[in-house]
Amino acid sequence: MDELSKILSLILPILMPGLALIAVLKLKLLTSLDIPLDLGITLNGKRIFGENKTLKGVFVMMFAATLVSSALYFSYWSGYALYISPVFSKSPILIGTIYSFSYILGELINSFVKRQLNISSGKITLSKFRNLQEFFDLSDGIIVAVISLLYFTTASVNQVLTAGFIGIFLHYGTDLFMKRLRLKH
């Protein structure tokens, strides 16, 4: 049980900011931050990231990941170290930054590739690579976060990889749930 809770603690700094971003988007909050990260700049006549990758997303992901990392940090040092990954014994600002920047980087890489391949934001092609594209759409940020945790922290390889698989599974599940609730098309 201790091992599972440590793995789940590794998922929270991505899961909770993702849920926070959905709430901010649905409630139309922080509209002054609806500034596209690519500022409308194009490469090969195509947007670099598109309209959906905004300063709002960066702000919410960074703030929420740091907040969650802070809660885990204080819990770790308040007697719950048995249940929380030792990753959170370090600076919550550093850990929150690693989580948020790596997740955002994965999202931006995927968006860049999709824009250059003329795939619209939120769309999946009808080509023979549809399943692969859908996999990367739902796991891009998680994959880069897993790599970053393995590279920049002393987290256990088994725990990080397991957290990555569970995180991807949860992302698939929440995506299906949002489509059923018609919150996502």
Radius of gyration, CA atoms, in whole angstroms: 17 Å
What is the number of E strands? Answer: 2
The quaternary organization reads as single chain
The major beta sheet can be summarized as:
2 strands, antiparallel
Mean pLDDT equals 92
Secondary structure tally, helices: 5
Give the structural class. mainly alpha
Enumerate the strands of the largest sheet in spatial order, edge to edge or round the barrel: 1-2
Query: Distance between the terminal alpha carbons, to the nearest Å?
Result: 37 Å
Which range best describes the helical content: under 10%, 10-25%, 25-40%, 40-55%, 55-70% or over 70%? 55-70%
> What string, H for helix and E for strand, traces the elements in order?
HEEHHHH
Residue windows where pLDDT falls under 50 for at least 5 positions: none
Number of domains: 1
Strand content: under 5%
- Tell me, briefly, the overall form: globular
Your description of this structure?
This protein has one domain (2-180). The chain has 5 helices and 2 strands; from the N terminus they run αββαααα. The protein is globular. It is 66% helix and 2% strand. A hairpin with a 2-residue loop joins β1 (42-43) and β2. α4 (130-152) runs antiparallel to α5. It has helices at 2-26, 55-80, 92-116, 130-152, 157-180, and strands at 42-43, 46-47. The protein has a two-stranded antiparallel ribbon. The protein is an all-alpha fold and 185 residues long.
